[in-house]
Amino acid sequence: QVQLVESGGGLVQAGGSLRLACAASRRTFGNYAMGWFRHAPGKEREILASISWDGGSTYYADSVKDRFTISRDNAKNTVYLQMNSLKPEDTAVYYCAATRGLYYRSDSYVYWGQGTRVTVSS
Q1: Looking at beta carbons, which pairs linking 107-116 to residues 24 or more positions away fall under 8 Å?
Q2: N or C: which end of the chain has fewer CB atoms below 10 A?
Q3: What pLDDT, in 10s, does the model give residues 49-73?
């Protein structure tokens, strides 16, 4: 089992940036593909970005492409989400998740963090 803890959320003005981090408990972190999701009130949870176990492949949702960047540091058991040009519609709870399956399959993720709230003011 993998325990995940997100950090870095908060309140930011539109156009600003935040960097989320997700620390994993296992030293076998490098065996897992990682993803960032968000859940906004009244909306379905959506996958934003994901990255393969070695960082060699990434996926981005159209809604965040060119604004968000996912990266990972396997030596630190951590995955990051750099979020730039934030918009009020980015307001949501952001979750990281892990899978030993396909990184681009949102339904393959089985381990989840508790989430970190991001609020973007206009």
Answers
A1: 108/33, 109/35, 109/37, 111/1, 111/2, 111/3, 111/4, 111/32, 112/4, 113/4, 113/5, 113/6, 113/22, 114/5, 114/6, 115/6, 115/39, 116/6, 116/7, 116/8, 116/9, 116/20
A2: N
A3: 999 999 999 999 999 999 999 999 9
The angle formed by the CA atoms of residues 121, 86 and 111, to the nearest 5 degrees, is: 105
Q: Which residue has the higher pLDDT, 102 or 27?
A: 102
Give me the residue label for tokens 């730039």. 84
Tokens read off for 44 = 């379905």
**Residue 41, SS3 per DSSP:** coil
- 37, two tokens: 């999701």
- The answer to whether 100 and 6 have CB atoms below 8 angstroms apart is no
What's the length of the chain?
A: 122
Residue keyed to tokens 């997100």: 6
Instruction: Give one word for 10, left, alpha or beta, with left for phi > 0 and alpha for psi -120 to 50.
Output: left
